[in-house]
Design brief:
The protein contains six helices and no strands. By secondary structure, it is an all-alpha fold.
Length: 146
């Protein structure tokens, strides 16, 4: 699978996830994972996170952090879940925030930690699900459909 094929499948997986079609999203993500090495999967996670950052910027508009001014996205934990309770969801939130802040060393460290854990597949899926949820919210705020 070449990079163009991977990019097209990432787009399809995200589109299906945003539309609420989890089975198709999972099918595309499985195809990507089966045909990709660790480096490509890191790129896939970055591409998904880029879509998430775009959606966050759409949601927050003028209030979104501006990196050129030193502003940063921050993560506020909502609910009782902890890293131990929900490691995949913690990965997704932390990876998205680190990527959105342009913190490549942290995204690499988070990816490597997920890769070395039993939660790797769940973590990548959680990132896709998190970004899909944020994208749906952005669409709803813009008056778009699901």
């Amino acid at each position: 699978m070449n990079l163009d094929d991977t990019a097209a499948l990432v787009f399809e997986a995200l589109a299906h996830a945003v539309a609420g079609n989890a089975d198709e999203a999972a099918r595309h993500l499985t195809t990507i994972g089966t045909n990709s090495d660790d480096n490509r999967m890191y790129g896939v996670c970055c591409a998904i996170a880029a879509a998430g950052e775009h959606a966050l910027r759409q949601i927050y508009g003028d209030r979104a952090p501006r990196r050129e001014l030193g502003d940063m996205w921050a993560l506020e934990q909502i609910g009782a879940a902890t890293v131990e309770d929900a490691p995949a969801q913690a990965f997704a939130a932390r990876f998205l925030v680190a990527y959105s802040n342009g913190d490549k060393p942290t995204t690499l460290a988070l990816f490597q930690a997920a890769l070395d854990s039993e939660q790797y597949v769940e973590s990548v899926c959680a990132l896709l699900a998190t970004v899909a949820g944020i994208s749906r919210l952005a669409l709803q705020q813009k008056g778009g459909s699901r």
